[in-house]
Every structure is written in structure tokens, then in C-alpha cells.
Amino acid sequence: MAADESDVLVRPATSADLPQIAELYYATRTAAVPAMPPLVGTREEVLARVLSWRVDEPADREVWIAEDDLELAGYTVVTGGWVDALYVDPARQGTGVGNMLLDLVKSRRPDGFGLWVFASNAPARAFYLRHGLIELETTDGRDNQEHAPDVRMVWPGTDPRRYLREQIDVLDEDLAQLLARRFALTAAVQGYKPRGGHVDRDPQREREIAERMAHHVPGLEVERVARVLDVIITEGIDRWEAARSSSPGDDA
User: Residue 2, exposed/middle/buried by CB under 10 A (0-12, 13-18, 19+)?
Assistant: First the structure.
């Protein structure tokens, strides 16, 4: 049965709500195994992490709770353009509480927001997809506490093209810096090879690099990575050879 909005109150959380939030978080994560990996740490450690929150810090963090008859039904945490958490009491899942919390986030972040969900959490991924979020990337989980593969999803807001273009612009700035570093390293290593340049390229090593990169980003085929890597290495070596040939006395 769907939640009746007249019976469920959604309001900003206070520090007094933290004990209930901590208990709900622990209960929800525990009940979700194996769709979600087990929590890291003891029950006491997990609860202590939530109890240490300052609900109004940083300034762009918002913690909202949904409650029914003064019982906590769910909560969400939004920091800047990210949903850090959205959990519903296991006994209330499927009743509309999650819909209400997600709709609240959309109203608070009309320009769009992102979140991470474990790749194994099929119910959560399906829930977000039904509500207009899209999946952008899958990682091997090296950067999360559980070291479990995860998926970055976004709601692109009321102007999806603008939101996604802004995401591309930010990524392109990072990519430009990475390319500059890669070109510099490609050039530097040539001086430590017998001859350097294209004649000393190692196809086997390049293949291993492509496979390693693809492993860290599930869903990215090795052959696609290999083609992009080939262009990057080729351009880096071309740049090194051009600089070398223009250096005075190089052939002396």
C-alpha cells in the first residue's frame, strides 16, 4: 500500500534524530545483504559514525527525515550536488516513502544531482531508473569503504542537456591535465629505452595496460580502451620525436 502523504511528515533532521537515523541505517544495510555488501565495522562503530554527524555542517549538507506517528520511516542526506544517502526502513520499503524522499531531493536540487549505488543492488538501481536517473559509469569499487563495484547515477535535472554538458566540461578539464601528464611521462621514458620512439614500442605492455584500465572500469571493453590508448601513446611519442629532431646537435 502506498504511503499516504497526509500521514507521513518529511522535515529537516535535528541532532535529536541521529540515534533513530543511526539505527535505521544499520537495520537497512544489514537487511540488504547480499544486494549490498556487509557494513564495515562493528555495530557500535557504525552507529557511532552516524551519531558524530553535525546535521548542519558543512553548510551545503541537508539531512531530511520521513516520519509516521513519530517513528522514523526513512531519511536522505544531500551534500551539494550529491545524494550521500537515501534509506527507507525495511518494513516500509515499497510504501512510497522512498518516492517522497527522492521527490524532495529533486525539488531541492532542480539543476540535477548525482549518487553512487552498489552495482549489486539491483532493486535500488531499478528504483532510481524508474524515477528518471541514468547510469553514467561503473567502477571496481577501489574508492569506497567496502571495495565493492559501484555505479554513478545522475538525475540530470529540469534541463538535462545543460546538466550533462556541465559534467562533460568538468571532466574535460581533468582529462586535459591527465593527458598532459601522460604525454610528459611518455616522453620521459623514451630516454631510457635503447632507441626510443615508435621503433621501441611494446605492444604486449600496451595490451596489458589496456586490460588493466578496462578492469578498473567495468563495462569499458578492452578493445575500445586499446584504441584510445594507442592514440594517446602515438601522439605522445610523435611529440617527443618532433622535439628531439628539432634539438640542435641531436645527431652529432
Answer: exposed
